[in-house]
Recover the amino acids of this structure.
């Protein structure tokens, strides 16, 4: 049972799950914002266009009311939400993936092992030059650089 709980904990703490949770919360807030916009501005506009007043956007047959204005309101809400998601999320991601596929956007520059070793060698040489000015450290056996011996790396 303990490995199952550990696996669940690892699943929850992965970055993708947290990113998804944030996206859901932001999506819900955005949907509420668009819903409020359509209820506050578009629904009255639909009422004015369809005859105005409280009964605008309602078609009555006998005692039954068909609230087609409410349906049009929800349809507009859906189209606005889809349009914003497309232009704010989908299109930029598509462009980014196309650039990566074309090789325009290189990945992070990772030095090779040879470059890292050369950098370490240069740092060690710089440290040695710094100690040569004050004289060799006690107990070290260094050959003079001009003295016909083998040169170091």
């Amino acid at each position: 049972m303990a490995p199952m709980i550990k696996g669940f904990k690892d699943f929850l703490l992965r970055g993708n799950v947290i990113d998804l949770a944030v996206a859901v919360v932001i999506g819900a807030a955005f949907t509420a914002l668009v819903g409020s916009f359509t209820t506050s501005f578009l629904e009255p506009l639909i009422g004015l266009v369809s005859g105005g007043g409280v009964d605008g956007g309602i078609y009555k047959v006998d005692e039954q009311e068909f609230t087609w204005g409410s349906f049009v309101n929800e349809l507009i809400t859906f189209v606005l939400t889809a349009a914003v998601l497309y232009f704010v999320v989908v299109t930029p991601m598509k462009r980014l993936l196309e650039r990566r596929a074309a090789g325009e956007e290189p990945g992070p520059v990772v030095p090779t092992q040879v470059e890292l070793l050369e950098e370490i060698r240069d740092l060690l040489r710089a440290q040695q030059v710094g100690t040569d000015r004050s004289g060799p450290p006690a107990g070290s056996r260094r050959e003079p650089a001009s003295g016909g011996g083998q040169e170091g790396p």
